[in-house]
Write a structure and sequence with these properties.
The chain is α+β, with helices and mostly antiparallel strands. The chain has one domain. The chain contains 5 helices and 4 strands; from the N terminus they run βαβαβαααβ. A two-stranded antiparallel ribbon has the order 1-4. The chain has a two-stranded antiparallel ribbon with strand order 2-3. The longest helix has 14 residues. It is globular.
Length: 155
């Protein structure tokens, strides 16, 4: 999880059991924040993907993913890491990070590592638009961007 994620539940047992059984627990944004909309066309091309297949899937919330290390997640991390080492895959030149919420076109912006992780996990878990197998999301965290946390308070 990245620094904007906050654990909101004291009971992570269900999430841990889920990730162990299914390799990974991930969350998504809704289809209005689609992978097609938030991935540069050159990354799609590099990965040999058809952008049309990703229009109805929300991108993965890369700031909070729970992995159980097994062959499935090893493959996910290997592919994600290999892409990260090639600028043409992870960060095509002049890719735009800013996503205008009023524009709904394919490739209007690029979310870099989040775009690539979304493509990889969608290839594995493409039946549901949220957690790979469960129908009702687990409320174990929330994202709080811009919130400051003082880890080392001044005395």
């Amino acid at each position: 999880m990245d620094s904007s994620a906050r654990i909101t539940s004291g009971d992570l047992d269900q999430a841990l059991k889920y990730s162990r059984k299914h390799s990974v627990l991930h969350f998504t944004y809704g289809p209005s924040l689609s992978i097609a909309r938030h991935t540069d066309a050159r990354t799609m091309q590099y990965l040999g993907e058809d952008v049309c297949k990703f229009r109805h899937f929300g991108e993965i919330e890369a700031g909070f993913v729970l992995y159980y290390f097994d062959d499935v997640t090893k493959t996910v991390v290997d592919v994600w890491g290999a892409c990260a080492l090639d600028r043409n895959c992870i960060a095509p030149p002049r890719a735009k990070y800013y996503c205008n919420p009023m524009v709904n076109t394919d490739g209007q912006c690029h979310r870099f590592d989040q775009s690539v992780l979304s493509i990889i996990l969608r290839r594995l878990f493409h039946k549901c638009n949220d957690n790979p197998i469960i129908e009702h999301p687990m409320g174990i965290h929330e994202i709080r961007r811009g919130e400051r946390v003082s880890f080392f308070p001044r005395k």
